[in-house]
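In the laboratory, one determines a bound structure by crystallizing the protein with its ligand and collecting diffraction data. In a computational setting the workflow is compressed into a single prediction: the sequence and the ligand go in, and a structural description comes out. We illustrate the idea with NAP.
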Amino acid sequence: MAPKRICLIGAGPSGMSVLFQLEKLRKEGVDVPEVVCYEKQSNWGGLWNYTWRTGNDEHGEPIHGSMYRYLWSNGPKEALEFPDYTFEDHYGRAIPSFPPREVLFDYLQGRWKKMGLKEKINFKTVVRMVTFNEETDKFSVVTENLTERNLTSKIQPTEEFDYVFVASGHYSVPYVPTYPGVDRFPGRVMHSHDFRDACEFKDKRILIVGASYSAEDIALQTIKYGASKVICTYRSKPQGYKWPETIEERPIFTHVDGKVVHFSDGTTAEVDAIMFCTGYLHYYPWIEDKLRLRSVNSLYPPNLYKGIIFTPEGHNGGNNKMLYIGTQDQYYTYTMFDVEALWALKYVLGQIDVPDKKTMRANLIGWAERLKSSKDCYADIDFQTDFVLELAKDCNYLDGVDLDVTKIFYDWHHDKEIDVLSYRDKSFTSKFTGTKSPIHHSTFMSALDDSKECFMATK
Ligand code: FAD
Ligand code: NAP
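The predicted complex, in structure-token form:
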């Protein structure tokens, strides 16, 4: 049989897990398929590869990055730690539970460098189109190499693949609704995708639209760096935390008149800036219609068997060979991507069987039904735990290591409910080393320096 070829799109944490697991299998003596990885940025890391840029990059490509300066992990590192590469393995000692972005990125890179994965990536190569030919049973992938000012950039000859793994992320293309009067607002209007430095909002009053993670984090961040007032406006339900006096929540606004915001409860407030923290789109314009995932941000995006194999109703969607990695909304992150990566590779290797299409559809619909009945975040955490554990069992991830961190997530959420300002000052115990992490030398709200050097100065 001719060796199989896989096209891997993206070298963020999900794509890197595919490369990592592939290399690991190779080292174990498995005859692995060829994987060609395309990454449009000039470095690996996906969202963790911080950029100051917003809008378009130097090639005219939309900026992928949505992370900002002073971003600290919003979940305990013990909930995302790799069992085979712990934080203690990387740093040589225990570190606090909620590291800033640079510290997490450094950790990820440590695991990838150990396997020498950088040379496996085609950087500055953007995937322009993915199509599937039923007759040849192969995918055609068109890419373009980006060069300075695009003077010599070239559409590359079309490549043929047996499988496509989409690991392009889904927190990059902002969803930006509008409200009456925003078009005449005399101040800064932006989406959290373009938020970079909170200092810009020193002494400013901000309206934050949305009630999820970005809204919460950017409200705290901007206040931390000197904003005078934040009003978060919610559409469905308030976040409900015990906020400091400088942050409040109000029901959704109806319109803006000049600088005055009108809320649906009849109240008004004057603000200097409006920040839409309204989430992101699953956006794959470079994938042909019949292969394209269409979803909102969800713990179980539709039409994905085991959350991975594209299995739409009707047409065959790439004959079970169009795979998506890391498309779920995320409590679990790095370990979930890692398990999905191994599952996908073992599936391609023929080590995991899938049933007939009707059974696959019934399975994915069953998961989606269960999600519909989930009534709170604790049930959501249970849902994602079961999802991860099932995949891990299917692919015998690390010989059956227990990835269940439900208790850590429950405690973390409980801490937030008690005090949103201090939940990052708590300490958790690593499931894999048994070490309880030290407490950071400064509280989160007082720690203005997010550099690795400063963070690592914790005794
Ligand atoms: P991404 O990190 O988005 O990587 C996708 C890669 O695909 C990118 O490198 C991109 O350039 C590339 N790509 C996209 N399209 C193409 C194309 N057409 N051709 C070639 N390459 C392409 N998770 C945590 O665990 N802890 C946190 O504290 C945390 N904070 C977050 C903060 C913010 C503001 C956001 C938005 C997310 C945060 N996350 C956090 C979640 C984050 O989604 C994951 O940690 C992780 O980055 C997802 O990895 P990924 O590889 O699936 O996607
Ligand atoms: P999100 O979780 O998808 O939330 C989107 C929010 O926008 C929801 O509250 C939604 O309200 C609201 N919304 C959507 N359309 C709206 C409209 N027309 N009017 C008003 N509100 C509207 O997106 P996110 O908060 O950007 O989070 C994305 C990811 O980034 C998460 O994985 C999160 O963990 C991560 N993140 C991490 C950090 C950190 O680690 N420090 C910081 C920020 C973000 P409804 O509930 O009504 O739909």
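Residues 9-15, 38-41, 46-48, 64, 66-67, 71, 73-75, 80, 126-127, 167-169, 171-172, 286, 326, 330, 333 surround flavin-adenine dinucleotide (ligand 1) (CB under 6 Å). Keep in mind that any predicted model is a hypothesis to be tested, not a measurement.
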